[in-house]
Amino acid sequence: MSRAFVNEDSAAAQADQPVERQISEQPNRMTAQGLAQLQAKVVQLQHEHSLESAKGEQADKQRQADLERDLRYFNQRVQSAQVVAAATSTEQVQIGSWVTFANQLDEQQRIQLVGEDQADASIGLINWGSPLGRALLGAQVGDEVLWKRPVGDQLIEVLRIEPEV
Fold it and tell me: How many CA atoms lie within 13 A of 141 on its CB side?
């Protein structure tokens, strides 16, 4: 066999390896609900991997590799989880708190500070380690904090803090 074919096979095998998910360097602090969601994701991925593996030779090898990569990532996230006590304060923003704040135009927004893997800005779940999360963490009702945004800093006022439900 020509050496060129061996090298092509080797290159093809390497191309099939999925890129590993990057693990954040920030502490993996999260709510109890966030941990439950991560654990459910691991169970789902294990089930999908079992189904794919059961196909034997007909299994989609790329799908298996992707599932194995995702399992490594989510298992590591579960192992490194630092579940914080439920946010009960209405006086100070904590991870898990629901916070209503207003900008300088008096436009209000309500968000909850959560762990990185639970964050979903489209539904108001904001990573505690994001610029907005860091600005609000530890703030009290009436405090004005500086939200350092890529598009320009913005002063916001904490209007209400609600406990995690």
Answer: 11
pTM greater than 0.90: no
Q: Please determine, for residue 35, whether its predicted confidence score (pLDDT) is greater than 90.
A: yes
Query: How much of the chain is helix, strand and coil, in % rounded to 5?
Result: 40, 20, 40
Q: Is the pLDDT of residue 59 over 50?
A: yes
With contact defined as beta carbons under 8 Å apart, do 91 and 140 qualify? yes
